[in-house]
Amino acid sequence: MLVLPSHYTDPKKYTDDLCEFIATPLIHQLTGGIHVNDSLIYGAWESLPQDWTRYWSSWTDHRLVQQDLLDSIEDRAKLITTEYNENHEELLQSRPETLVAWLQKLYSLALPRIEREGLLAELPDALTRRMKTKKVAEISKATAYVHDVCQRKEITRVVDMGSGQGYLSVSLAYLFPHLKILAIDGSESQIAGSQEFATSVGVPESRLAHIVHWIDGSSNLAQKIESWADGHKCMLVGLHACGNLSDHMLRYFVSMPCIETLGRDFEKARPHPECHGTDDGLPSPKQLGKARRPTNGNQRRRLYRAILEKVLYDKGITITAEQRPAWGIRKSDMIDFTHFAHRAMECLGINRTEITTEDLKEYEERYRDYEGRIPILWTLSILCCKVVESVIAMDRYWYLEEQGLEKVEVFPIFDSKVSPRNLIVVAQKNKGGSW
Ligand SMILES: C[S@@+](CC[C@H](N)C(=O)[O-])C[C@H]1O[C@@H](n2cnc3c(N)ncnc32)[C@H](O)[C@@H]1O
């Protein structure tokens, strides 16, 4: 089952509308066309519709604008009663119609996130001890789901790609001893953590095998998996499969004979080029949750970062990705922009004669009004997360449909309040067994 927004019944029509919306210049700008850090260089605020920016300027506190924007893509019924909205009714009434229409479009084009009812496995302390609350909720749902599919499809082997610390693979092996699990991750340290977890709860290697290997589309890995499968049918799973891991997973699923069923949720990933979207520079959906409470510290830091990029750009100072140090910002660096910039320059090895203190003070003054604008730009890009994720999900859906698979599903598996990234793509190759 493909769970579409309520007013759509036809996946094709939905996909067309989604792609048309994501291809608009505004969405393009907000989802990576202009990274917020570069917003002063490329005039990101000035590129927004003027009636919107005029309207936001009439608010006394930009954090209320951010809250209002974030609320606008939440459940509407809940919002009407909020005290916050009652207090700002007048301002809300004067929202530009084009903004109202845009927010409605964002809201109505995002795939629904209300968790589908499903089984839950009870996890013993031995397993949950290492997990955060979010992980416990995800693993109890995911293990029950994978086990249920395996039972229905008479599958006894599960391949977990990007298995990380082994929360899913160790739990599956621990809870369901008749299953054999293969955990694959490109990171040696992740696999070592998973092996240690398995040993600590008494799961033997005969039930849970580990491989350190990048999921890279190579036939070498495919051979290793086929050899481990030893002629048995497998289910391929991935929890929070990020980056190109998810693309490769789909290809392995389609091309490998031993893999029967796919179940994966996903993190940030690149949409198919034909869908025009890009997530470069887009805050991950995790930030959707974090962004609920705009705080002063973050806002100022975002402004300073954008001014810094503008200064470097104007001075013709190019910093390559390799040169960029991991530099933590201390409280004392936030006294004003000059302190912030001096800290950055020190870390980047930029001499104070190249950018003088007078320059820095002049830039801070010039962009004073942007303190509220940069956070609003961030919030606008965060608002786009759900539609971008919907594009990615539909891209996967159509790819699998085009491969002529027996069944392809996309639905919300986890509680979105706990796991904002809660969509799962499930596919099955052959008939047989109930789903
Ligand atoms: C976000 S973590 C998820 C870990 C685990 N599935 C979970 O949910 O706890 C992604 C994991 O995938 C691994 N990974 C990312 N890309 C990979 C690739 N192309 N090949 C193999 N492992 C990859 C990372 O090392 C990391 O452990």
TrEMBL record:
InterPro entries: Methyltranfer_dom, METTL25, SAM-dependent_MTases_sf. It comes from the Eukaryota. This is Methyltransferase domain-containing protein. Residues 134-255 form the Methyltransferase domain. Residues 270-279 have a biased composition (Basic and acidic residues). Residues 270-296 are annotated as: Disordered.
